[in-house]
Write a structure and sequence with these properties.
Elements (H helix, E strand, L loop, with lengths): L1 E10 L5 H12 L2 E7 L3 E8 L1 H13 L5 E10 L7 E4 L1
Parallel strand pairs: 2-5
Antiparallel strand pairs: 1-3, 1-4, 2-3
Helix pairs in contact: 1-2
């Protein structure tokens, strides 16, 4: 199990990026959360099996149709044991 913090910049607000991330996370069995941040970016905590988290990271680097990711930062964290994946408003 690993946990990572992700910060994404570009055209990622108003294009269903959070909903896309949540749907992909649920399909892969990844837990955590995603939210918009001031300035137009998105951040997320992803927690799960290394391979599944890696898959989700790859999907997030592309994003849904209509999005355009121009920056992507990733840092590893200590696992907290999230039970599901949520969009934080």
């Amino acid at each position: 199990m690993i946990s990572v913090h992700v910060r994404v910049s570009g055209r990622v607000q108003g294009v269903f990026y959070r909903a896309y991330t949540k749907a992909q996370a649920q399909e892969l069995g990844v837990k955590g959360w995603v939210r918009n941040v001031p300035g137009g970016g998105v951040e997320a905590i992803l927690e799960g099996e290394r391979q599944k988290v890696g898959e989700l990271v790859g999907l997030m680097k592309t994003g849904p149709e209509g999005s355009m990711v121009s920056g992507f930062e990733l840092s590893e964290l200590k696992c907290k044991g999230y039970e599901d994946f949520k969009i934080i408003y």
